[in-house]
Amino acid sequence: MFALVALIVALASDSSARVIPNDNRHTAGQLKNGVLAVQIDASTARWFPEGTDGPNVVIAAFGERGKKLQIPGPLIRVPVGTEVRVTLRNRLAQPMLVRGLYDRSANSDSIDIAPGAEREVRFRAMTPGTYFYWGRTAGDRIGFGPSGDSQLKGAIVVDPPGAPRDRLLVISGWTHPEDTALTVGERRELLAINGLSWPHTERFTFNVGDTVRWRVLNLSTRVHPMHLHGFYFTVDSRGTAARDTIYPLALQRRAVTEYMTRATTMTMTWVPTRPGNWLFHCHLIAHISPLVRKQMASTAARHDGSHAANHAFESMAGLVAGIEVKQRGPIIADDTIARRRLRLFVQKRPRYFGTGAGYGFIVQGDSAEPARDSIRIPGTPIVLERGVPVAITVLNRTDELVSVHWHGIEVQSYFDGVADWSGRPGHTAPKIAPGDSFVVRLNPDRAGTFIYHTHQDEGVQLSSGLYGPFIVVEPGQTVDSATDHVFLIGRGGAAPSAAVLLNGAPAATAVEWRAGTTHRLRFINITPNDAADVTLLRDSTAQHWRLFAKDGADVAPAQTADRPARVTMGPGETYDFDITPNDSTDLTLQMIVRGRVGPIGTIRLPIRIRQP
User: Fold this and answer.
1) Which residues contact 294 (CB under 8 A, 6 or more apart)?
2) What DSSP character marks residue 369?
C-alpha cells in the first residue's frame, strides 16, 4: 500500500472533493441550432491518477458547472462552423489567465479572470483540427505550468463534415514544485493519459481489421516519444495550440514511434492485423518506470520493480495504455517452420561501468558459446532477410529476469517481449529467469532498420547495454559495411552522469567514405531518456541528404527530396538517409544528446572522403 501524498497548493480548495478522469468521449455543454453553450468552472479537488490507494494531490482543474472537476478538462468538440459560447468562472484564490478559446483563423486571445469572477468568450469554430485551451494562475502565466495549475487544460476538436469517429488521448503531468529543476527520473511526478496512470489507464479493445483513429495531445511540460507495439501507424497531422497541419496523402508517413514535444498534437490511424495484447506508451523510460509511483510514496521502498510478480502491472507505470486485439473466429497458430536459427545470449559483467554492471547481447557466431563474462555494447547486429522465418533462442546468463522487445518488427503478440502481457489472456509471455531460455519466432515482412532491447528493468538494463541494431534486408542482399553504416546512440551505465555512447564508445574514431558512392546512414536512438540532434557538416555548414525511411518504413516519394542534413530523434526512433559525397572535402557527423536541462554529451565523427 502506497503512502498517500498530498500537496496543498496555494489555491482555495475543497480537499474532500475528488477529480474524475475524463475519457473525452462526450462533448461538454449543449449544442443547439448551431451554437454550443458550455459553462466551465475552475476550482480545486484531490486527484488520484493511481487509484484510490495511490499517490494524490490537491490540484486545480476545470469542470462543467454543477458537475465534478475533470482531468483533462471538459472536451469542446463541435462541427466546423459552430458558434461556441463558453462561460468561465474562477473559483480559485488567484487570478486565472485562460488561453486557447478562439478560432484558429483569428489572432490568439486570452481571458484574465479575477478570483470569484465570471467571463464569457464567444467564437465561431471555422478551422478543422485538434487544439486545446489552458489556464495559468502562477508565475509569469506564460506557457504551461508544471505543478499547481498543470491540469488546467482541455481539448478542442473542430470536425469537418463527414469526419470519422475517433478517440482522444490527452497526456498530462504534474511535478512536485520542489523538483521542477531536477533531471528526468529524479522528480516526484504524476503522469497520466486521460487523467489516469498505468495500470489504471483505459484498456482499448479492437478487432483484427478495425481502423483505429486517435488524436494524441501532449498537454504536459515534457517531451514524449510515443511508441506503438506491433503495428505501424500513419501520422495524419501534427499541430500546436495555434494550428493543426493536416497532411495530404503524399506527405503522410508511417511510424512506430513519434516524438512529441510539449504542447503539440498528433492524429494517427492504424489497423491491427494480429490478435493479442499490445501497448502504446512513452519511450522515455523514466515516464513508464515504477519509480514514477515509488518516488511519490513517502514511505515506500524505492526499488525498480525488476523482480515484481507481474512485470506488466508492477514494473511499469505512468504513460502506458493497454490494447487487446481480438480475432473474429478461432486464432490459427503460426506453424511456419524456421529456415534459420540463432542463439542470443544475455550477458552481464559486474563493475563494468565503474561500480555499475554492464549488460550485452551476443549472438553465437559458431559452435562455441561466448565466454560468460563477455560483453558487447551495443549487442551483436542481427541481420535477417525479409520473408525468411527465423527462430531466436534467447538464453539468460544474468542473475536477473530479462525479456527482449523487437522494436518496430511486426511480430506475433506472444513474441513482442513484454513479460506477463504479450500474448493473450491466459497465455502471456514469461519473464526469462536466470539460466532459462525462451524461443522467439519472427518472420519479418519488410526490410528496414529496427532495434532489439530489453523490456525489463529498463532503467538499469537498457541504460547499461541491453540493446542492439536489428537490420532486415531484401532477399539476396547483404549489409556492406563500406557503404551501409549503423549509428546507434545509447548510454553507458545507469548513473544520471553516464556517458553518451555512439556504437558503444564515448568517442568516435575517424572513418573513410568513398566519393561518388551512395552511403546509407542508419540512425538509432535508444538512449533511455534523451533526445539526439544529428547533423552532417562540412566545416560548419549542414550538408544535404535524402530521407527514405522512418522506423523501418519507406517514406513516400514526395518526402525523399534532398534536405538539410539535420534531424532530432527521440528514444525509440530510427531514421534512414543516404548521401553521395562527390568531392574529397571531409565531413563531420555531429551528435548532440540533450537531457532535461540541456546538452549532456556531444560526439563528433570525422569522415574522410577519398576518391575511388
Assistant:
1) 300, 301, 302, 303, 305
2) P
For residue 54, tell me if it sits in a domain. Answer: yes
Tens digit of each residue's pLDDT (9 = 90 or more) over 406-429: 999 999 999 999 999 999 988 999
For residues 272-279, average pLDDT: 97
Q: What's the grid cell of residue 154?
A: 482541455
**Half-sphere exposure in the Cβ direction for 255 (13 Å, CA):** 24
What domain range includes position 360? 340-479
Q: State residue 327's pLDDT score.
A: 92
**Is residue 108's pLDDT more than 80?**
no
User: Taking residues 394-410, what's their average pLDDT?
Assistant: 97
Length of the chain: 612
Q: Which residues contact 402 (CB under 8 A, 6 or more apart)?
A: 346, 394, 396, 431, 432, 454, 456, 461, 466
Per the CB < 8 A criterion, the answer to whether 312 and 199 are in contact is: yes
Examine the domain organization and report whether 374 and 464 are in the same domain. Answer: yes
DSSP label at 539? T
Residue with cell 556517458: 499
Q: 340-353 and 320-326 as β-strands: parallel, antiparallel, unpaired?
A: unpaired
Element (H, E) at 342: strand 340-353
For residues 512 and 53, what is the distance between their CA atoms, to the nearest angstrom? 59
pLDDT at 294 over 70: no
Q: Report how far apart, in Å, the C-alpha atoms of 587 and of each of 514, 579, 604 are.
A: 12, 12, 10
Same domain assignment for residues 437 and 307:
no
Evaluate if residue 350 carries a pLDDT over 60.
yes
Strand spans (E) along 100-181: 110-113, 118-125, 129-136, 153-159, 167-175
Task: State the total domains in the chain.
Answer: 3
Euclidean distance between CA atoms 191 and 174, whole angstroms: 7
Q: pLDDT by residue (tens digit) across 171-198?
A: 999 988 888 777 766 778 899 999 999 9
Would the pTM count as exceeding 0.90?
yes
Q: Are residues 438 and 491 in the same domain?
A: no
**Sign of the C-alpha dihedral, residues 48, 53, 57, 59?**
positive
Closest CA relative to residue 361, chosen from 494, 431, 466: 466
CB 322 within 8 A of CB 279: yes
Rounded to the nearest angstrom, the gap between the alpha carbon of residue 351 and the centroid of all alpha carbons in its chain is: 31
pLDDT higher than threshold 80 for residue 451: yes
Task: Give SS3 for 449.
Answer: strand
Final residue in a domain of this structure, among 272, 297, 325: 325
Eight-class DSSP state of 610: E
Residue 2 predicted with pLDDT over 90: no
d(CA 587, CA 594) in angstroms, rounded, equals 22
Query: What tens digit of pLDDT does each residue of 379-388 get?
Result: 999 999 999 9
- Are residues 136 and 278 part of one domain? yes
